[in-house]
Amino acid sequence: MRKLELHWQILIGMLLGILFGFLMTQVTWGKDFVGDWIQPFGTIFVKLLKLIAIPLILASLIKGISDLKDISKFRNIGVRTILIYITTTVVAITIGLVLVNIMQPGEGISEETITKLTDTYASDSGVTSKMEEASRQKGAGPLKFLEDMVPDNALAAMTDNSLMLQVIFFAIFLGISMLLIGEKDAEPLKKFFDSLNDVVLKMVDLIMLTAPYAVFALLAGVVVSSSDPELLLALLKYAGVVVLGLALMILFYSLIVSSFTRYNPLTFLSKMSPAQLLAFSTSSSAATLPVTMERVEEHIGVDKEVSSFVLPVGATINMDGTSLYQGVAAVFIAQALAFDLTLANQLTIVLTALLASIGSAAVPGAGMVMLVIVLESIGFPQDKLAIGLALIFAVDRPLDMCRTVVNVTGDATVAMMVAKSVGKLGKPKVKNWDDHYEEVK
Ligand code: ASP
């Protein structure tokens, strides 16, 4: 019998997880049961993915750069990547702002709902912790992000997943220096990283064997801890605008893929689907990164010389879904709380949401932290910030899941575009976890 394709297996796991989670909400002990006995398996899976993220970035970026044999090629790739990332993010924010201005989801929301949401969430630790985190990030100077990108201790950078940009910096520095000492002298180090890279990609294959079960656990956990369905319903119009915007972004990527790379967009989406489904289940582009890299390189055929730079950088700085959401959420909150927005305010949102998406961490809920900064940039009253966040908190997790799918798809799209533009989009070479199993079993 032909084995069911991975994305179908994952999808079935997700649906069963949602169903199971829903059943568990019907019994009093259900939430605890899921928390104690089911969720840990999801957490272990996410930990495994994060475990290999740093070795993978290091090995693949060093291999990618040392394969280039030419620093100017790397400069080309770098400049294109950053420019395209900025462009797609601006497109995303613009789509979000146009939709929220046309559909006005904040206008119809009743005083009663606002009061209920405020009472439930304004002093919730979820909201207050996001505001605290935002005020910590806000105190930084304009060049702080550059300063933060440079590690003062390579090993320390490698021990902290939130320092991914520092690891990228170190890997690029090392890779370029390897090119500069000449092929012969760099050979032993290159072989080491080549081999490490293959090993880590094999680890991705092995981890993915458990993906259908892990997403079951992750989604059951999300369902049992989701908010009161009545509150979710009150925010349906706002959530609908965000989801519509995100769907338009997927359409936009499909158009780019077919026009720039002449690749069938449906094939692109189907090859990326395991990564997208994991992005949805984990709400973290950083955790999904190893799978995104594996899909883009082995299943789509983007050369490592491009993907090893474009994807890790994208996971940390390119968040189209997040910035679209920040645009919609900021205007929605302003509409609901009758805070008038001028055109200049909306342009400020474009700029700050762009910077905020660069600054957002690739972890669940990070987009909401930076939303505080977007709201402050348009002069939103400080004393109403908690109320504003309380308004959207109930639906933040499901929207986070959806925007992470867009974040990951955006990175993959740009990887294809850059690869095509430098002649590095080739034939896929799929490797299976058991290619050498017979030799060692
Ligand atoms: N969870 C998102 C990501 O990891 C970030 C966010 O929008 O909160 O891409």
From TrEMBL:
<dbReference type="InterPro" id="IPR001991">
    <property type="entry name" value="Na-dicarboxylate_symporter"/>
</dbReference>
<keyword id="KW-0769">Symport</keyword>
<keyword id="KW-0325">Glycoprotein</keyword>
<dbReference type="GO" id="GO:1902475">
    <property type="term" value="P:L-alpha-amino acid transmembrane transport"/>
</dbReference>
<dbReference type="InterPro" id="IPR050746">
    <property type="entry name" value="DAACS"/>
</dbReference>
<feature type="transmembrane region" description="Helical">
    <location>
        <begin position="203"/>
        <end position="223"/>
    </location>
</feature>
<dbReference type="InterPro" id="IPR036458">
    <property type="entry name" value="Na:dicarbo_symporter_sf"/>
</dbReference>
<feature type="transmembrane region" description="Helical">
    <location>
        <begin position="235"/>
        <end position="256"/>
    </location>
</feature>
<keyword id="KW-0472">Membrane</keyword>
<feature type="transmembrane region" description="Helical">
    <location>
        <begin position="41"/>
        <end position="62"/>
    </location>
</feature>
<dbReference type="InterPro" id="IPR018107">
    <property type="entry name" value="Na-dicarboxylate_symporter_CS"/>
</dbReference>
<keyword id="KW-1003">Cell membrane</keyword>
<keyword id="KW-0812">Transmembrane</keyword>
<dbReference type="Pfam" id="PF00375">
    <property type="entry name" value="SDF"/>
</dbReference>
<feature type="transmembrane region" description="Helical">
    <location>
        <begin position="163"/>
        <end position="182"/>
    </location>
</feature>
<feature type="transmembrane region" description="Helical">
    <location>
        <begin position="82"/>
        <end position="103"/>
    </location>
</feature>
<dbReference type="GO" id="GO:0006835">
    <property type="term" value="P:dicarboxylic acid transport"/>
</dbReference>
<protein>
    <submittedName>
        <fullName>Dicarboxylate/amino acid:cation symporter</fullName>
    </submittedName>
</protein>
<dbReference type="GO" id="GO:0015293">
    <property type="term" value="F:symporter activity"/>
</dbReference>
<feature type="transmembrane region" description="Helical">
    <location>
        <begin position="7"/>
        <end position="29"/>
    </location>
</feature>
<keyword id="KW-1133">Transmembrane helix</keyword>
<dbReference type="GO" id="GO:0005886">
    <property type="term" value="C:plasma membrane"/>
</dbReference>
<feature type="transmembrane region" description="Helical">
    <location>
        <begin position="324"/>
        <end position="343"/>
    </location>
</feature>
<keyword id="KW-0813">Transport</keyword>
<feature type="transmembrane region" description="Helical">
    <location>
        <begin position="349"/>
        <end position="375"/>
    </location>
</feature>
